[in-house]
């Protein structure tokens, strides 16, 4: 019926198809998950019985906070960077690690040297950052 070589090829194709289908299923499943990361630094900001159903008012509150927000990129910590639009705790840590490794930023544009902060991210945060020696 089938030679040993044919059987190996058919087995390989079947395993490849199953593996590929599994990857597609996983990608579709993982895109639908809402994963929330909680660290010791931001636990104090969690309020009981928050459902997230009032997202429009949350955005307005964030916009009001941003109106008065200007941080010094040479002195700020994770909590301050985390308030910036598009900057989460991981990127905030990257900024701080970059600053520790290479020293203080000379100008605001230097923050674009941090991995994960490109032109688009920079344009979002530019109005809210300053660079003091």
List the helices and strands and how they pair.
Elements: H1 4-31, H2 55-67, E1 71-72, H3 78-82, H4 89-102, H5 119-125, E2 129-130
List its traits.
133 residues, two-stranded parallel ribbon, single chain
Biggest sheet strand order reads 1-2
Look at the structure and give the mean pLDDT.
Answer: 79
Sum up the overall morphology in one term.
Answer: elongated
Estimated share of beta-strand residues = under 5%
Question: What is the CA-CA span between the terminal residues?
Answer: 79 Å
Please work out how many helical segments DSSP would assign. 5
Order of helices and strands: HHEHHHE
Low-confidence stretches: 49-61
Radius of gyration, whole Å: 23 Å
- Main sheet specs: 2 strands, parallel
Helix share bin? 40-55%
> Would you tell me the structural class of the helices and strands?
mainly alpha
Work out the number of β strands. 2
Brief overview:
By secondary structure, the chain is mostly helical. It contains five helices and two strands. Strands 1-2 form a two-stranded parallel sheet.
Characterization of this structure:
With 133 residues, this protein is mostly helical. Helices cover 50% and strands 3% of the residues. The protein is built from 5 helices and 2 strands. The chain has helices at residues 4-31, 55-67, 78-82, 89-102, 119-125, and strands at residues 71-72, 129-130. It has a two-stranded parallel sheet. The longest helix has 28 residues, at 4-31. The termini are far apart.
